[in-house]
Amino acid sequence: MQWFRILVGPYPVALKTWWENVGVDSSLTATDRQAIAGLAALYARAVDERDFEQLRAVFTVDAELDTGSSVRRGIDEIVTIMEGLRHYESTTHLVGEQLISAVAVDTCTVVTPCTAHHLKVDGLCRTDRVMHIHYQDECVRTKAEGWRIRSRRLDVVRVDERQMN
């Protein structure tokens, strides 16, 4: 393991330390990684703004969404199931640092941690249901639309409910 940087000749040559190489997959370009990471941000914004039609720019037409309690196939079913989030007053999805790994040409896996707040109002009672999630995605590069999520599985790590009276 390389734990330091060295200088060679009159010009500095920076060698990467072992921790700078963790999670780096050189088969995906920086542009690819930016587009892939953007899918999580676009998903969060579409859900939080209740613009579920925008999910069509996140998932492939034949995508699969596994919520743990049900599996939805096809973008129309995904949009329909996400409409169920309207019973919350609001949601806030905070996505974390992603691990993106190429598995084949034009295909990668992505693990995205997320903390998702779901605010429910019942009369004077306000409850924040906080879900700590890992999204397990398989993304593909499509010819017409660029990178999209082909399958997403939600792994719920923990759920906390907080009264906000």
At CATH level 2, the architecture is Roll
Uncertain runs are: 1-21
Helical content (DSSP H or I, runs of 4+): 10-25%
Principal-axes geometry comes out as globular
Integer count of domains: 1
Overall strand count: 9
How large is the share of residues in beta strands? over 45%
Contiguous helical run count: 2
Biggest sheet statistics: 7 strands, mixed
The separation of the N and C termini measures 53 Å
The assigned structural class equals: alpha+beta
Q: Could you tell me the CATH topology label.
A: Nuclear Transport Factor 2, Chain: A
Indicate the CATH class: Alpha Beta
Query: What are the secondary-structure elements, in order, as H or E?
Result: EEHEEHEEEEE
Tell me, rounded to a whole number, the average pLDDT.
87
Rg value:
20 Å
How would you describe what is shown here?
It is a single chain. By secondary structure, the chain is of the alpha+beta class. It has one domain: Nuclear Transport Factor 2, Chain: A (Roll). It is built from two helices and nine strands. Strands 3, 4, 5, 6, 7, 8 and 9 form a seven-stranded mixed β-sheet that branches. The chain has a two-stranded antiparallel ribbon with strand order 1-2. Mean pLDDT is 87; it is low at 1-21.
